[in-house]
Amino acid sequence: MSKVELEGVFKSFDKKNILSDINLYVEDKEFCVLVGASGCGKSTLLRIIAGLETQDSGDIYIGGKLSNYIPPKDRNIAFVFQSYALYPHLSVYDNMAFPLKIRKMSKRDIEQKVMRASEILGLGDYLKRKPKELSGGQRQRVALGRAIVREPEVFLMDEPLSNLDAKLRVQMRSEIKNLHKELDTTFIYVTHDQTEALTMGNKIVVLNDGRIQQAAKPDDIFNYPANIFVATFMGNSPMNIIPASINDGILCFDRVMITLSEFSRQIIGNRKKVLLGIRPESFNPYFVESIVPTGVRINVNVNSVETSGGEKYVYFKLDETEVTAKVNSKINIGATADFSIDPGDFHFFDVETKERIV
Q: Are 146 and 99 in contact (CB under 8 A)?
């Protein structure tokens, strides 16, 4: 069993809290992604699991075994660093073989493990080369290979793709996902990239200021964010958060008035004000000529437009709130535009706590 459990983990540096009351359960063979902005504590958490940092309090269990006092080399984990951490004077083969030589394995066993890892990663033609002769993607494969040969219970990866260009990152994301399936063991992966998190993990842990904001499946993180931070952090474009008022079951913002469904009324309760969340993708061009126009119609003045491939990001204001819509149709700066929004796409958050209203 290669499950990882953290119970009540705290960590501070120079009297500043880095991690506060971290409770996390990573299941056997799960691909868990820790995501958050720089400085949120995700890399520190990974290093504590590895034993490279010591928590101030709390317990770490790896494979069901209390690991607080087990040295890193004995935790049966493999750590893949952002910087690759390859030995420049050693060949690809020797870099991958190094952790096995330290264990004093036989040459035959070392060769078998290195050759298997090189086959999985497509490194067979590069075994005699030095790291300086490799591309960034190839170096990252060597770092992964050095981890694979150890046959660890748990793989820990600290932003392994951050040094690669955009195209290569997409390719390596796919390769790491396939590697997870091939090895059939537990991966814990750190990134600040929301796209990496949503496309790679089957569990995402969102951190902010050293605390877990939400731990859930990618679809649940995206569709049911636990609070305003998760809602605005996750996704290519942040969720729009619009102050709204409620009067006799009517939701009001800007010049828009919407009769809430009975279900929404029950969720919101007796609140008179809410924070309304609408994802940019939820705005659709409103066509008057449609036989059955759907959603609530709003009319806006377009302040700016950004084009990204076949998509456009349209910016406008509702009351005093800057809002983004993601559309495929042609819209010009300075024009007025009509959008429709399906109330079923609305998210509601408490004005005081900023937590999701459920």
A: yes
